[in-house]
Amino acid sequence: MVGERIEAVMQTDIVRLTPDMPIREAVARLVETESAAAPVVDETDTLVGILSQKDCFRSALNASYYQQWSGTVAEYFTSDVETIEASTDFVTAAEMFLEKPYRTYPVVRGGQLVGILARSDLLAAFLKYG
Question: Domains of the chain: which residue ranges?
Fold first, then answer.
């Protein structure tokens, strides 16, 4: 386990959202893929934020009240996003999950988005490699 890096267990086939995407479409993608969150990227595929299931509840409640979905991802996503480097070891990643309430972290290499790490991915890795 010592020395194992999260790049070995991160998800690389991930949902990417854009700020101008209708929020209803983004919610549908999160639900369809059973994702707790998805990275929000600009036209150059640069990470600009993250949209979590929790972020989507404001829009869902508005849709419930007004009988229609409105708005875009830009109105609901979190732009101050914490990332994790692909070369991070399992122990450091586990400590990050313990310190913060996040269920997922966008994974970057050299500042470029390369995947996402969910708590469940890391727990599975501890079972597999531990």
Answer: 6-129
Architecture of domain 6-129: Roll (3.10)
The pair of three-digit structure tokens given for residue 114, joined into one six-digit string: 């390369």
Summarised one tens digit per residue, pLDDT across range 9-38 is 999 999 999 999 999 999 999 999 999 999
pTM above 0.70, yes or no: yes
pLDDT surpasses 90 at 90: yes
Closest CA to 31 of 4, 59, 2, 9: 59
What is the SS3 assignment for 84?
A: strand
SS3 call for 51: strand
Q: Which among 108, 104, 106 is positioned nearest to 120, based on CA atoms? A: 104
H helices, E strands: number in the chain:
4, 5
